Every structure is written in C-alpha cells, then in structure tokens.
C-alpha cells in the first residue's frame, strides 16, 4: 500500500499575529550653551550637541526627529529660556512626546526643578526623556536610577553651577578692583582699546555729542529740548550707534531715537570724568542669573582716573547742580500748588494710533485764576522727541477716565440688562409651566369627578335591582 503524503500546516507569517507595532515617538532635540560653558577650554559647542542628538535619533528606529530647539547663552539654573518655553508649548499641544538631550546638565542645573520635570511634569504629559551620555531613558529607567542616580547627578550639576558662578563673580570683582572695564559695550563717547579690551579710549565719533549735551544743559535746556535737537539732526542714539557700527545685530535698535532717559544717563555718569563706577547692579542668585538688584552706593567699585576724561570736573558738577535745583523747584512747586502724584493705572495700556508706541503719562499744569492747576496727560514720546516722526498727541487722563468709565458702565448695563432678560425669560418659562400643570390638574380633577359619578350611579343601579351583581362586578 502506498504511503500517503503527510500534510504539513504552513507557518503563518509573523504579521498575522496580534503583536502591537512599536510606537514611533515625535522627538525634539534640545541643546543649550551658557555663557559660563562657552568660556571653558574644551567646552561643548552647540553644533557638537546637535550632531550627537541627530545621530542618536537617526540610529534609533522608534524615534523620528521633529526639530531642534537651541538656547544659546542661557543658564541652566532656571527654566525661563525662550526656546525651552517654545518647546514645552509644542509638548503641551501634543505635538512632541519625546525629548533628547546630550546629558542632564544640558537640560538643567537646578536640582529641584530638573527633578520636578523628570518625576512629575513629563510623566503627567506622557513624554519620554532621554539623556544620551548619562544613559538615561525614562522608558527603560529602573527604580534605582529615578531614586538615587539621577537625583545625585542633578545635585552635582547644580553644585558645579554654583561653584562656577562664584568663581566668575570673584574674577569680575577682581577685575573691577584693578580698574578694568568689564562691560559688554563701552559707554557712549568711548570705545574699547584694541590693545587692552578692559581699557576705555575716547571715541572721536561720539565724544563731541557728549560734550554738546553738557554744553546745552548748562545753557538751561531741558532733557526734552536736548533730545529734540539731537533727533532733528539725525544724530544716532547710543543704541542705534551700536547697531550701525556692527556691535549689535538686534534690528530693533536700527532706528532707535534719543530719549530723555539717554540724556539723563549721560549727564549723571561719572565715566565722563575719567572714573570707572562699576558694581551698581549685582546678581541676586546663581539660580536667577537674569535677575539683578541695585547695590547700595557703598558697595560700588570706583576707580578714579581710569581713562581719559571727556568732561572736566567743573562742567560736570555744574550740570549736577542745575539738575538738583530744577528737581527741588519742581517738587516745591508741586507741593505748594496741591499737585499730587498718583499711580499710573493705564501704564502700557494706551498706545499711539500712528507709531504704535505706548503713550507716556506726564504731569502738566495750566494757569487758572493766578494758580497752577496740575493734571495728568498722555503724550506720544516719538512726537515729543522728534516732532517730524509722528503727530502730536495730548490725551488728558480725566478725559480718558471718563471714556473708560462710560465704557465700563455700558458693559455693566449690558450685563444687568442681560440678567433682566434671562430673569424675564425664566419667569415666562415658569409661568408657562405653571399654567400647563394647573390645566393638567384641572383635567385630572374633572376626570376624577366624572369617574366618581359613574361609580355612584352604577352602585345605585345595583341597589335598585337594575343590574345583577355579576353585571356590576364586570362593569366596575
């Protein structure tokens, strides 16, 4: 008998099984470089971080690059960084579900806040986090990594940041004590020496403007008058000058005009006497590098005759005396005339319709019955500083208050009217329902009366022998 061929069931392909496909993560690469890191020999560069991250993502099948976010020159001791905040915006909108960094120190050097992101925020948002050089991945991290290793690394990163911040502050203080200029840009009227970047030299392009400002002030001209004169002659303001000579690339400084604040700063700055006054502002904390406080004058570091003077001592002191006299006269006049300073409730809420700049609140007065009557008015600084650049605006605060008050009352009336309408509609609805229920009750009562009458008549028919009990029972 011939052997029959054994049937062999073919192996089903793997795709036929119910094995779930691996999740593909929309991945953001985050790179950061602080001023401190950039100054260290052999320090990271932004490009090296980018290369490391993109290579890692390309070689990891479950990751797809959604973009790179870069914070250049921002400390890791706080998370108020522009690109990081933009990245978190994408995360909260569900557009990113994985973040990759070179190491934990690039993400942050604040032990507490970094831990908060890793242990609370990212898990809540279902975001995977990977630190390449620390071999840390929240998707595969074990308990001991979360509980001991990562917190320890974050603490070490914060300690490093505190240590480097203290060293930098100490180095800056030493330079200031030696009379070295440590500012990013030289004060208007000066330039940094090419031979020694910590020494100031007179800038022959801008020093004449400084001398002119002091000269105009001594003639009795006010800040606003000086500003108008400079702007009408198209003299570059300090910010605009930095832009046009290439020291600043920020486009917003291109056409910046002179302001009374610029003039006041120049007239009060002892740098024009040849002295360096540094340390006026100090960093509050290594964790808040961008938040500074004004130091008391006894903490300032002053170096006399550190560079060539632009203004002589007599001219400078005369300008200070004139400013002091005018300030005292103003406040005396204000006090005698009953003028009162009040908070600016519309600060940065009122704008010029022509140039788009915020209107400035000024206290002015008018003569009425031989008395000065003070009031507040909003004006356009662009028009004040350079009349040809914008049209004059003069909006009295009391008129603005009346307009705003009227608008508020209209809104209140509208809300009140809306409440009345809602109440009327509700009452109409209740009245309608009441009438409907009363009608239903009346109909039910009539039906009950009719039924009772029928029942009584049927019973009477039984008593009278008109119907039998069997018929009564059936009809009942």
Could you give a short description of this structure?
This protein has 14 helices and 14 strands. By secondary structure, it is α/β, with parallel strands linked by helices.
Commentary on this structure:
By secondary structure, this protein is an alpha/beta fold. The chain folds into four domains: 22-175, Resolvase, N-terminal catalytic domain (Rossmann fold, 3-Layer(aba) Sandwich), CATH 3.40.50; 190-319, Alpha-Beta Complex (Hect, E3 ligase catalytic domain fold), CATH 3.90.1750; 337-392, no CATH class; 399-476. Helix content is 47%, strand content 16%. The chain is built from 14 helices and 14 strands. It has helices spanning 35-38, 46-58, 82-92, 104-107, 111-124, 143-177, 207-218, 223-232, 238-244, 260-268, 313-336, 381-385, 397-463, 469-475, and strands at 25-33, 63-72, 98-101, 128-131, 136-137, 190-192, 200-202, 276-278, 281-285, 288-294, 301-303, 360-368, 371-379, 394-396. The strands form five sheets. It has a five-stranded mixed β-sheet, with helices on both faces. Strand 9 and strand 10 (288-294) form a beta hairpin. Helix 7 (207-218) crosses helix 11 (313-336) and helix 8 (223-232) packs across helix 10. The longest helix has 67 residues, at 397-463. The chain is flat and about 140 Å long.
Shape: flat
> Helix coverage percent of residues?
40-55%
User: What's the mean pLDDT score?
Assistant: 79
* Secondary-structure arrangement, i.e. CATH architecture of the largest domain: 3-Layer(aba) Sandwich
Contiguous low-pLDDT stretches (5 residues minimum) are 1-19, 36-42
Question: Mind telling me the CATH class of the largest domain?
Answer: Alpha Beta
């Amino acid at each position: 008998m011939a052997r029959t061929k054994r049937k062999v069931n073919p192996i089903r392909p793997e795709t036929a099984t119910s094995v779930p496909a691996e999740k593909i993560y929309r991945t953001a690469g985050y790179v950061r470089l602080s001023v401190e890191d950039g100054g260290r020999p052999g320090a990271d560069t932004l490009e090296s971080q980018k290369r490391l991250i993109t290579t890692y993502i390309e070689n990891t099948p479950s990751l797809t690059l959604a973009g790179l976010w870069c914070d250049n020159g921002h400390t890791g001791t706080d998370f108020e960084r522009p690109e990081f905040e933009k990245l978190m915006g994408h995360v909260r909108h569900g557009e990113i579900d994985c973040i990759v960094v070179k190491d934990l120190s690039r993400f942050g050097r604040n032990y507490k806040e970094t831990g908060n992101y890793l242990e609370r925020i990212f898990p809540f948002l279902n975001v995977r986090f990977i630190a390449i050089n620390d071999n840390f991945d929240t998707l595969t991290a074990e308990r001991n990594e979360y509980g001991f290793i990562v917190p320890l690394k974050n603490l070490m990163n914060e300690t490093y940041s505190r240590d480097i911040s203290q060293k930098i502050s100490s180095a800056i203080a030493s330079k200031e004590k030696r009379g070295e200029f440590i500012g990013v840009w030289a004060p208007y009227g000066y330039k940094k020496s090419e031979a020694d970047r910590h020494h100031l030299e007179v800038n022959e392009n801008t020093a004449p403007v400084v001398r002119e400002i002091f000269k105009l002030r001594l003639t009795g001209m006010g800040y606003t008058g000086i500003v108008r004169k400079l702007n009408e002659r198209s003299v570059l303001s300090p910010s605009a000058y930095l832009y046009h000579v290439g020291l600043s690339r920020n486009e917003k400084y291109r056409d910046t005009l002179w302001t009374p604040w610029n003039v006041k700063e120049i007239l009060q700055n002892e740098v024009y006497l040849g002295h360096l006054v540094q340390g006026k502002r100090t960093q509050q904390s290594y964790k808040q590098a961008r938040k500074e406080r004004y130091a008391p004058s006894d903490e300032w570091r002053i170096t006399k005759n550190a560079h060539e003077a632009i203004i002589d001592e007599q001219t400078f002191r005369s300008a200070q005396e004139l400013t002091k006299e005018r300030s005292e006269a103003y406040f005396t006049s204000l006090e005698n005339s009953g003028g009162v300073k009040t908070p600016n409730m519309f600060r940065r809420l009122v704008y010029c319709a022509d140039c788009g700049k915020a209107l400035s609140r000024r206290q002015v007065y008018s003569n009425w019955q031989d008395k000065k009557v003070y009031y507040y008015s909003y004006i356009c600084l662009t028009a004040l500083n350079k009349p040809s650049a914008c049209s004059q605006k003069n909006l009295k605060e009391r008129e603005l208050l009346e307009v705003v008050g009227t608008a508020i009352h209209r809104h209140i009336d509208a809300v009140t009217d809306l409440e009345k309408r809602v109440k009327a509609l509700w009452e109409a609805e209740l009245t309608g329902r009441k009438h409907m229920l009363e009608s239903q009750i009346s109909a039910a009562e009539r039906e009950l009366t009719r039924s009772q009458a029928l029942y009584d008549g049927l019973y009477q028919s039984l008593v009278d022998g008109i119907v039998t009990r069997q018929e009564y029972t059936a009809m009942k």
